[in-house]
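Protein Record: Sequence and Backbone Structure Tokens
======================================================

Structure line: whole-number tokens from a learned vocabulary of local backbone shapes, matched to residues.

Purpose: to set a sequence beside its fold so the mapping can be learned.

___
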Amino acid sequence: MTVPLIEQFGPLARDYDVLLCDVWGVVHNGVAAFPQACEALARFRRDGGTVILITNAPRAGASVQRILDRLAVPHDVCDAITSSGDVTHGIVEARLSERVFHLGPQRDHSVFSGLEVMFAPAESADYVVCTGPFDDSETPDDYRDLLAALRARSQFMICANPDIVVERGDELIYCAGAIADAYVAIGGEVLYCGKPYAPIYEAALAKAAALRGKPTPLDRVLAIGDSVRTDLKGAASFGLDCLFVVSGLHADDAGGHGAPDLAGLNATFAAAGVAPKAIMRRLVW
């Protein structure tokens, strides 16, 4: 089946009451907000819909909101935010009697906010929370020795961001998912929070139900995202339709932002065994 390319979101939006919208790659690119995408989400809300931003950011939703503010994303784009950091926070809260090694930058420390966590070095911790590389310039190869040492101690890892890479302007930055996958490749045990796994969708839909006063049937919920691995596969696994927005993550398959290569994209979807409801170059009402 060939997935259609649509130019306007408005006609499709009428079929849905709730949007679970990805953030990085759809609403902004890590450098600046996408005004047309922001307006499309705000318009959906003005027409009575509910928008939950659903992100694999390894930090609390309140911290994500501060980032959106810095990027000039208007507050009217969403009703609430659900992050993989929020899911991770809940898991850590249930393990407060254990010592944790935080593998990630200081900026992600909000994932532990409000918790009396016992931190420890890698060699003495009971488990690991990975929020990404310590430095954005690093790759999974830089962690080969550390991961081998963790594996030697059979350390359990919580991955607070299943993304492999994100787009920052024209640059691709490695995320926690890349390090976690490298750990799995050598036999490590990893619990992935965030998309494409069910807990983050359950949390987002619970927020939507609280806001709307009742649960929304899954056929009235649309996921929007730019990643086959996380957004598209996650939506399909949860029984949701997905609108796929072309971005730098799949630029090679799509033929660039300006003129998507539908044959290349459909080949990518076929190889992944999933297909979106429709494709857009960018989210525009």
